[in-house]
## 1
Amino acid sequence: MEPASHPHRSVLYMPGSKERALEKARSLPADALILDLEDAVAPAEKPNARALICAAVKAGGYGPRRLFIRINGLDTEWGADDLAAAAAAGPDAILVPKMESGAQIREVAARMATGTTPDHTRIWAMMETPRGVLNAADIAGAHPLLEGFVLGTNDLVKDLGAAQTPDRLPLVTGLGLALLAARAEGLICIDGVYNAFRDDDGLRAQCVQGRDMGFDGKSLIHPAQLAITNEIFGPSAEAIATARAQVAAFEEAEARGEGVAVLDGKIVENLHVVSARRLLARADAIAAIAAESL
Ligand code: COA
Ligand code: MG
């Protein structure tokens, strides 16, 4: 399947040092997995985690789940070795933390070009510092290998000196700027994590907010968060039915030589049909990976 058509409803972090989690993930209903070498792994564990993650990626067996390796920053003692090993292992993407400029993305791309990186390996950027968010447009347009952003909302809250409030009002500007930059360049954009992983109602509310803002999906910390996230970021049966009806109504109007249709008292123009077709394509892609996971 082409990466662009792959859904990214649920993107689950897992510490690269935990062999059991790496194994378990082969059967979890996540659209993508972030095998982490950065903050989820203690310094003493990093070389071991690097070896475990690269072996897991090479061994495969993850079915339709996309695999991202999150490396340590290139300004740390582990970053260069992480990038070289990750690029050689050939995951779907290398996720780079704390990106703050387009030049940093080009540096990652240049290093990948010197190794034996497979063609399918893309770059993703963590957007999680005030400077990174302010430079989001420069980062988003930096290199053709860049495919998406993951918001690092815990780091952003820390750097802003903001509070974690249920409505996320203190974060809305940052989330919106990253989304605008991503969409301007046709990138995928994934919302930050919800820390209280046993609080289903809180997670649901935050997923709805992120989905309504335009995020493609949410990054997660625990498998208990997968079902709700997949549900909220996947189109509902009702939304699919409406999209099909919009497309049909518009095609009938076109056949009559008209450029606009009316469905249930609402106007259906070309732009609504573009959104409806995109939703139907996403529903098809979700059905396809569900079938592949069986
Ligand atoms: N990915 C895959 N499997 C996971 C997982 C994850 N992120 N988190 C938990 N699991 C597994 C556990 O291995 C355990 O499996 P088992 O029952 O087969 O042994 C099962 O799910 C239940 O785990 P549980 O006991 O509920 O959680 P925990 O107390 O062991 O771990 C966390 C809680 C938060 C420490 C853990 O979920 C975690 O490390 N999450 C990722 C954190 C991270 O990556 N942060 C960096 C980015 S913000
Ligand atoms: Mg972070």
## 2
Amino acid sequence: MAQQKLIKKYAVFGNPIEHSLSPSIHGYFAQKHNINLSYEKILCDEDKFEVELRKFFDSGGLGCNITLPFKRKAFLFVEEKSDVAKITGAVNTISKKNDIYFGDNTDGAGFIRDLKENINFDISEKRVLILGAGGASMGIIPNIFLEKPKSLKILNRTLDNAKSLVKRFSSIGNINYVEKSDLSENKFDLIINATSQGMNQNSFDLPSEIFCDDSIFYDLSYGKASTNMKNWAEENNIKFFDGLGMLIEQAADSFLIWEGERPNTTEELRNILIKEL
Ligand code: ATR
């Protein structure tokens, strides 16, 4: 009797999770690498996260992605972690090897790779502004510093949160907060929306003085959440990119951690995902 090929079991945990594109991305990678893989979406309540995670690995799970709101909980759960996970304080990729849970964070590397490889934007010596001071900002800051920007400023609705973020990362790079009233005295080459809110047009009024001819605006969100931002950028002639490229690149890095091979991140995959948005 022909032996059935082993199905490798992966998953993504989050809440909400229904619209996650990760199963399609990893399904695509697996097909290209001829790997028999299952990748399920696991919705869980905050208080059940650890229990569900253990259940998944106890039933043969090899690795999982973690999305909102569990990245911090995942960081606290794992027994060993990568340097980037340690600095960000968040984990988006878990693997279990030799009975040890290992946590990594591929968000920042995914963001940088999308900028460098797909958009052809080099952060080195550039002036960077991040909107937002929550988990998404923390996830990308260490990798931004590795690229040696000229400066990094944080603008946030709640000034105290911007100040805490600056304090957290000031030992690893040139980072400051900026207040909205002082914003127009600055120019930026790269502006990143890392707020959790796809901002509505009314609340979004960055002064035009902060943009140069070659400035780009990168929204970490994608799909419907970034539609208003995209429209705003188009109306103001600002080069705009959404976070779909980052999503694909961070997934490829997770796949590399689990399977030892980094899949190609193709235009074909991007087009498949756009149809699902
Ligand atoms: P996370 O779980 O990623 O930390 P969060 O705490 O809900 O998400 O918010 C992330 C960032 O989005 C925060 O900087 C938040 O600003 P505050 O620090 O002032 O809370 C920002 N944010 C959320 N909604 C916003 C809105 N409507 N306008 C501007 N900023 C917003």
